[in-house]
Amino acid sequence: MVDVVTIYCKNNNRYVDVPVGTSLVEVYKLCGEPLFLPPLNAYVNNKVESLDFRCWQPKDVEFLDYTRQSGMRAYVRSLCHIFSKAVYDVAPDSTLYLEHPISKGYYCYIKNGKKIDDALIEKIKERMQEIIDADLPFIHNKIRTTEAVKLFRERGMEDKALLVETAGMLYTQYYELDGYINFFYGSLTPSTGYIHLFDLVPYYDGLLLCIPKRDDPTQLEPIICQDKMYEVYKEHLTLQRTVGINTVGQLNQAIERGKASQVIMVSEAMQEKQVARIAYEIAQKYQEGVRLVLIAGPSSSGKTTFCKRLQIQLITNLLHPVSISLDDYFLNRVDTPRDENGEYDFESLYALDLPYFNSDLKKVLAGEEIELPTFSFETGTRIYKGNKLKLKKNSVLVIEGIHGLNPELTSFIDEKVKYRVYVSALTTISLDNHNWIPTTDNRLLRRIIRDYQYRAYSATDTISRWPSVRRGEDKWIFPFQENADAMFNSAMLYELAALRKYAEPILMEVQETDPEYAEAYRLLRFLRYFNYLSDLELPGTSLLREFLGGGLFEY
After folding, report:
1. Integer Cα distance of 337 and 322 in angstroms
2. Shortest CA distance to 555 belongs to which of 456, 454, 457?
3. Quick one: CA dihedral 125, 131, 134, 135, positive or negative?
4. What is the DSSP letter of 183?
5. CA 410 to CA 422: how far, in whole Å?
6. Closest CA to 261 of 527, 529, 489, 536
7. Which whole number is the average pLDDT over 313-342?
8. Cα 451 from Cα 461, distance rounded (Å)
9. Second label for 99, Cα 20 to 30 Å away, from 201, 440, 493, 542?
10. CB-side exposure of 228: number of CA atoms within 13 Å?
11. What are phi and psi of 12, to 5 degrees?
12. Which of 529, 391, 494, 433 is nearest to 80 (CA)?
């Protein structure tokens, strides 16, 4: 008699008995193949697992396809493994760098001492398609880390060897594809045949790896122009190469060798250099009529601290900055518009009291004095604390908020008086050459810490709201980012190592029964690759103080 275990499939609310040790691929079939699109991985007891996971005990299982973030991550990782394998086959003496998301795709660079031409790109694409058509399995291996380090070094993969060697884990997983090995810290699809659509196109001095749309996997994401953002990434990558810290393994090594102070100082100096440069340019534009500085960016990008540091630099340029926060012009919570799920849509432009804001802005620019409101996030209402605002000689008005770059916000103001700044945490350090760090993970960790410390929200609260925040950013913020006159990268080389000790205990409070547990568990696994870095040496003006506390600015 075959021993069986009971599996509960969340997709169709069905219980099935399966033989002990059955893989999720087979479980999916036995559950009646409940998804319209093929699954790419699954939540098993609210933890992401690959479809080769075997069930030895009763489990709750939810299968995930392209439309789910975890499913799309598995698709992209698998595509990247195929890409790196194809580059290895076509140009074995090259080094491939999968660096960062941009233009609805992923920027890649091939270092081989030659110019990347159309012929090479076409050969790589053809080899990728051959691998996909062959439906080769991704073989998942887990070995002792000491053995993994040796294996990676034997294959010339020093970036991966250094990462796992410095992360302090006893065992390391890696994936094999037709004899070629690679490291990924998350799940892949069972085989290459799951990858049905991709493209590879020239992009500046590298390539753009294009992926399907999440809401329509039959179509590729359209390439959008992000010239200014590319230049910001390029500047920071150049700095990283100068200091010799491109990957988390190199950062860990610097921390182990007592060089954390130098990394912090260089990162902070780089940011101050950016702030000073923007302030100088505003001062120059002031002579041409600029009187309004609009600062925008997505959630937890550090807009508030940037605004405060910019004002200090503006003073050194003999300007008198006065500031307004758009957050203080939120509608009272009961009047806030709701999204398609009936939840408050705080990311909407119309969550702001636009008539009230426009009235105050007109008065200020006309030289009148106004009383500034303050929005209480605790009560969800607007209050007044007697704060007055009036422009003086050499004054420049600085407005900070997620909608600052939206033309509708200040449509009645002459374009000649505006200067726009886009702020975001454009993370450039990578885990290794083939594993970039999503900028959204950086911002989400910042927000989890800030919300917990200053807004009395649990990690469960913040994670549950994050998909709505992201949808709002896609609709209300990202379409306008290239409108900026300047871009400020608020991410720092060292910051995830500093955030780790704050984020971990908050994430650990999420219960396994919570739907948000899968994301909390993923973030905890991700943070384990960073060595702890003390924040005691962070200056009081550091942008991270906005989230960690202990800074000189009042928030």
Report:
1. 30
2. 454
3. negative
4. -
5. 16
6. 536
7. 93
8. 9
9. 542
10. 16
11. -130, 15
12. 433
The SS3 call for residue 209 is: strand
- φ and ψ at residue 21, rounded to 5 degrees: 90, 10
Whether 485 and 491 have beta carbons less than 8 Å apart is answered as no
Report how far residue 357's alpha carbon sits from residue 351's, in angstroms, rounded to the nearest whole number: 12
Pairing outcome for strands 206-210 and 105-111: antiparallel
Helix (H, G, I), strand (E, B) or coil at 113: coil
Q: What is the pLDDT of residues 381-433, one digit of tens each?
A: 999 999 999 999 899 999 999 999 999 999 888 899 999 999 999 999 999 99
Query: For residues 521 and 248, what is the distance between their CA atoms, to the nearest angstrom?
Result: 20
Pairwise CA distance, residues 121 & 415, whole Å: 42
Q: Map tokens 């069905």 to a residue.
A: 14
Residue 475, H or E segment = helix 459-476
> Tokens 């500085």 identify what position?
293
Q: 19: how many CB neighbours lie within 10 A of its CB?
A: 12
pLDDT digits (tens, 9 = 90+) for 243-300: 999 999 999 999 999 999 999 999 999 999 999 999 999 999 999 999 999 999 999 9
pTM attached to this predicted model: 0.94
Q: CA-CA distance, 296 to 402, in Å (whole number)? A: 5
Q: How many residues does the chain have?
A: 555
Give DSSP secondary structure letters for 288-310: TT--EEEEE-STTS-HHHHHHHH
Instruction: Give the other-Cβ count within 10 Å of 117's Cβ.
Output: 9
Is residue 340's pLDDT more than 90? no
- Any residues with CB less than 8 A from the CB of 317 and at least 6 apart, and which? 279, 280, 282, 283
What pLDDT, in 10s, does the model give residues 48-92?
A: 999 999 999 999 999 999 999 999 999 999 999 999 999 999 999
Q: What is the pLDDT of residue 2?
A: 65
Q: What are phi and psi of 85, to 5 degrees?
A: -65, -45
Cα–Cα distance, 138 to 55 (Å, whole number): 19
Q: Which residue has the tokens 């058509």?
A: 133
CA 219 from centroid of its chain's CA atoms: 23
| Residue closest to 252 by CA, chosen among 157, 161, 141, 166 | 166
158-167 vs 145-154: helix crossing angle, rounded to 10: 160
Query: CB of 500 within 8 A of CB of 527?
Result: yes
Whole-number Å distance between alpha carbons of 97 and 430: 10
The separation between CA 379 and the C-alpha centre of its own chain, rounded to angstroms, equals 30
Question: Hey, what's the torsion of the CAs at 293, 298, 302, 306, to 10 degrees?
Answer: -10
User: What φ, ψ does residue 338 adopt, rounded to 5°?
Assistant: -115, 155
Residue that has been written with the tokens 């890409």 in this structure: 83
Tokens matching residue 480: 């306008």
Tokens in use for 240? 């990283």
The CA distances from residue 242 to 39, 263, 382, 496, in Å, are 43, 12, 48, 20
Helix (H, G, I), strand (E, B) or coil at 350: helix
Concatenate the DSSP letters of all residues of 226-279 into one string: -HHHHHHHHHHHHHHHHHT--BHHHHHHHHHTT-HHHHHHHHHHHHHHHHHHHH
